[in-house]
């Protein structure tokens, strides 16, 4: 009898898992909805984070009336499960909501940065059109689903549309600045560097943070595709240079890359790293900040985030671009000519990878 009971319990658990996965799209779509509606900002007014009912939230969002409080509450309840909101249930059954730990990252800080743009960026219409084609990466790995769906690659698509490029810059800044602050609190590998090249530096905000922390870095070269740096802001000590790392890289005492190698194939990574090697003096180093996959697959949140990001890259940017293991990075470095390699895990998702010449 116990055996039969155990089988039924296992089947019930399996059904719950399938139901959760089948309805998983409800989570990012609900999160995108509350960001577009500016629900986190409505709750966070003046930093008070006072619990509000769905009706009270709508009153702040739409002071002249309108909106369906019941449907908003249904969305909020789902997002409570993912630590976006905290639910406060009164004795009379009224539900109120405040921002939970993750939800607070969706509210702009004193510099106007948040993770909200990163969520919106990942769920633009152009990207959503690509997801039904993810299976095409198995059938034909030569063309990315994004390109199949939109007629051109993602980078080309972004740079031709000012509003999309602006969202890209905001998304990268919103996620990069907190990450870089954490890295700079723990990693001291920028000492002794006078000229630092940031390959794929976008707006140059990363160089700005490094140079503020390390005044010994007197010259920063923000190197990215010409369209990406065309509208980059003026930053003291930083020059913006357009180009392609697969062709050449500006010379410097050290070269920094963040979220760049993942968008290239192994052959492209090798070519770019060889160009970095040529651009560095003896003793110079390439400092890469890239997602690193674990060797063993498990059910941890870190592994799920990394593998989910891997499929995102495969679908949106390059079918053979990918997240790599530490060993794979080491082998690429050796092939590019770097005799010394070490990984510094200052961040569980994106550690520092040092390749020294």
UniProtKB/TrEMBL annotation:
Which InterPro entries is this protein grouped with?
COMT-like (IPR016461), COMT_C (IPR001077), COMT_dimerisation (IPR012967), SAM-dependent_MTases_sf (IPR029063), WH-like_DNA-bd_sf (IPR036388), WH_DNA-bd_sf (IPR036390)
Instruction: Could you list this entry's UniProt keywords, alphabetically sorted.
Output: Methyltransferase, S-adenosyl-L-methionine, Transferase
Q: Name one Pfam family in it.
A: Methyltransf_2
Molecular function, one GO term: S-adenosylmethionine-dependent methyltransferase activity
Note whether Transferase occurs among the keywords: yes
Give residue ranges for domain O-methyltransferase C-terminal.
138-338
Organism domain of life: Eukaryota
Q: Which SUPFAM superfamilies match?
A: S-adenosyl-L-methionine-dependent methyltransferases (SSF53335), Winged helix' DNA-binding domain (SSF46785)
Which residue ranges does UniProt annotate as crossing the membrane?
none
Q: Where is the O-methyltransferase dimerisation domain?
A: 20-108
Q: Which GO terms of type biological process are on file?
A: methylation
Q: Which PANTHER family match?
A: O-METHYLTRANSFERASE
Q: Any idea what this protein is called? A: O-methyltransferase domain-containing protein
The protein's organism comes out as: Lupinus angustifolius (Narrow-leaved blue lupine)
**What taxonomic ancestry is recorded?**
Eukaryota, Viridiplantae, Streptophyta, Embryophyta, Tracheophyta
């Amino acid at each position: 009898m116990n055996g039969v009971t155990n089988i039924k319990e296992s089947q019930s658990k399996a059904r719950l898992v399938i139901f959760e996965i089948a309805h998983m799209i409800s989570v990012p779509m609900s999160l995108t909805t509350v960001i577009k509606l500016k629900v986190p900002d409505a709750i966070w007014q003046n930093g008070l984070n006072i619990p509000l009912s769905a009706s009270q939230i709508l009153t702040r969002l739409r002071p002249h009336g309108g909106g369906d409080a019941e449907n908003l509450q249904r969305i909020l309840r789902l997002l409570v499960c993912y630590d976006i909101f905290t639910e406060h249930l009164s004795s009379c059954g009224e539900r109120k909501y405040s921002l939970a730990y993750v939800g607070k990252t969706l509210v702009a800080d004193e510099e106007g940065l948040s993770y909200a743009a990163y969520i919106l960026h990942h769920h633009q219409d152009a990207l959503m059109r690509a997801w039904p084609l993810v299976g095409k990466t198995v059938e034909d790995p030569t063309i990315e689903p994004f390109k199949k769906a939109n007629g051109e690659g993602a980078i080309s698509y972004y740079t031709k549309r000012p509003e999309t490029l602006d969202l890209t810059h905001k998304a990268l800044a919103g996620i990069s600045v907190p990450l870089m602050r954490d890295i700079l609190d723990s990693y001291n590998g920028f000492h002794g560097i006078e000229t630092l090249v940031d390959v794929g530096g976008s707006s140059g905000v990363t160089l700005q943070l490094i140079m503020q922390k390390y005044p010994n870095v007197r010259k920063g070269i923000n190197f990215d595709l010409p369209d990406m740096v065309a509208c980059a802001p003026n930053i003291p000590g930083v020059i913006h240079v357009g180009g392609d790392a697969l062709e050449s890289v500006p010379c410097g005492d050290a070269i920094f890359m963040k979220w760049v190698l993942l968008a290239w194939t192994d052959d492209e990574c090798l070519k770019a790293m060889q160009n970095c090697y040529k651009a560095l003096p003896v003793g110079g180093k390439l400092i890469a900040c890239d997602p690193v996959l674990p060797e063993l697959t498990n059910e941890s949140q870190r592994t799920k985030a990394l593998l989910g990001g891997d499929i995102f890259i495969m679908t949106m940017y390059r079918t053979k671009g990918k997240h790599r293991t530490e060993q794979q990075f080491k082998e690429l470095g050796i092939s590019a000519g770097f005799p010394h390699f070490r990984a510094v895990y200052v961040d569980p998702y994106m550690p520092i990878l040092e390749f020294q010449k």
